[in-house]
Amino acid sequence: MAEYFISGFNIILPVLSRELDIPAASQTWPSSVFSLVTGALLLPVGRLADIYGGRPVFVIGLVWFLVWSLIGAFSQNYVMLIVCRAIQGLGPAGFLPAGIGLLGRIYRPGPRKNLIFSLYGACAPIGFFGGIFFAGLSGQYISWRWYFWIGTILLGLVLAAAWWTVPHDHNPSSNVKMDWWGTLTIVPGLLLTVFAITDAGHAPNGWATSYITATIIIGGLLLLCAVYVEGWVADAPLLPFDLFRIKNMVPLVTSLFFTYGVFGIYLLYASFYIENVLGASALQTTAWFAPMAAGGLILATVGGLVLHLLPGTAMLIISSCGFLVSTLLFAFMPDSPNYWAWIFPAMIGATVAGDITYSVSNIFITTSVSKDRQGLAGALINSLLFLGISFFLGFADFAVASTADQGMKKSYKVAFWFAAGCSGLAFVLVAGFVRIGKAKSDLTFEERIELESELAADVRREQMTGTSRGSDG
């Protein structure tokens, strides 16, 4: 359902821009504000899932998402739409980390966990294409409001299923606490910084505009304060520094941030390019995006059967190449492209990239942390996704706005070149610095710690025994 309200909204945005009279300077906001709010709130809400259990946070997140999706359908102007999209983003901030946390706690490392997370990943292309399909149908034949109403109905079905099937996982003995100082610095810091980046391209004087300068300075200072709080003040930091001492974590997280940023740019500007430059209707655009859904479903499901056979690094390299190919195809695309030669392979490349990246990163990160940090793992994974989308969309939008005098086609191609550069950087990071093996059967985090403690105790006993024998001699 999170994918439904990301992918489909990009398809229906041109229709919304006409009917709600959204100014060109504000057209990226209804799309990016949803991801921005979700990404900024994932860490504190993910902590709530670790404190109170995944089920209540999961269910409450769905309820919130349903209510604001319904309200969004009655938007009377673009300001109301943007507000509804922003508040709507709090819903996925609840159920996404809680969902990954639940799966991470329930399943042990190995082929079964690989399959489960791949099936979880397979839900993304289903929701992705569902959003595109109903957006295209609503935009071309009925009212754009039906896109929200259908989403609300689907959320009602999901909520009913969740109420009856999601297991209780609350551990009353857990010592996990809320980090309020981290929340008060991280959340507004992210919101203000990404707001400044996103709006700079349309501000009267660009980066020199007073409110852009003020927000980015305040946001940057808050993020610096967050680093200090998380590293030296908080007893239970939202983002503990020891998480980044896990082998491969820093280069992996950095590459994921760039990769998901490319994904956001591709989704928005591919739909804009197809509709506004190539002149396709909303329904035709839906059909052209169909390979992403079918390919994603196949890749995600089959991936669960081979993740324990192929090294994670190799799969991430394939993923990076997929985004590089898909963005370059749009960057070089001629005026009247053949669908099968240009658009179809671009869709397949983006599908390979998105699904493989999500599955491999989910399995690696959730397996590398303890059970009481599974909510944190889910929050980190999805923060990279949503913040990457918002952050890089802001820079892409700035690049497009700065080259608008060259015409729509050339300015959109600038966004694809920017995305291709980010894809290349992600490839270098993965190929040069990330070393992830096969996702095979293994001990859980707690079992590894316990085994290491037992081995250390055995070594100490042997040393003491040796010392005692030496004294006797």
Question: Please, could you describe this protein's structure?
Answer:
The protein is built from 16 helices and no strands. The longest helix has 31 residues, at 111-141. The protein is globular. The protein has helices at residues 4-19, 29-52, 54-72, 78-88, 90-106, 111-141, 145-165, 180-199, 210-233, 249-277, 282-306, 312-332, 339-367, 374-402, 408-433, 445-472. It has one domain (4-167, 236-458): Growth Hormone, Chain: A (Up-down Bundle), CATH 1.20.1250.20. It is mainly alpha-helical and 473 residues long.
Order of helices and strands: HHHHHHHHHHHHHHHH
| Alpha-beta classification | mainly alpha
- The dominant shape is globular
Number of H/I helices: 16
Question: What is the level 1 CATH name?
Answer: Mainly Alpha
Unreliable stretches covering 5 or more consecutive residues:
none
**pLDDT averaged over residues:** 83
Computed CA radius of gyration, to the nearest angstrom: 23 Å
Reported for the largest beta sheet, the result is: none
Strand content: under 5%
CATH superfamily: MFS general substrate transporter like domains
Q: State the total count of DSSP E strands.
A: 0
N-end to C-end Cα span: 73 Å
Helical amount among residues, as a percent range? Answer: over 70%
Total domain count? 1
What would the CATH topology be?
Answer: Growth Hormone, Chain: A
Q: Can you lay out the helices and strands and say which pair or pack?
A:
Blueprint: H1 4-19, H2 29-52, H3 54-72, H4 78-88, H5 90-106, H6 111-141, H7 145-165, H8 180-199, H9 210-233, H10 249-277, H11 282-306, H12 312-332, H13 339-367, H14 374-402, H15 408-433, H16 445-472
Helix pairs in contact: 1-2, 1-6, 1-10, 2-3, 2-4, 2-5, 2-8, 2-14, 3-4, 3-5, 3-7, 5-14, 6-7, 6-11, 6-13, 8-9, 8-14, 10-12, 10-13, 10-14, 10-15, 11-13, 12-13, 12-15, 13-14, 14-15
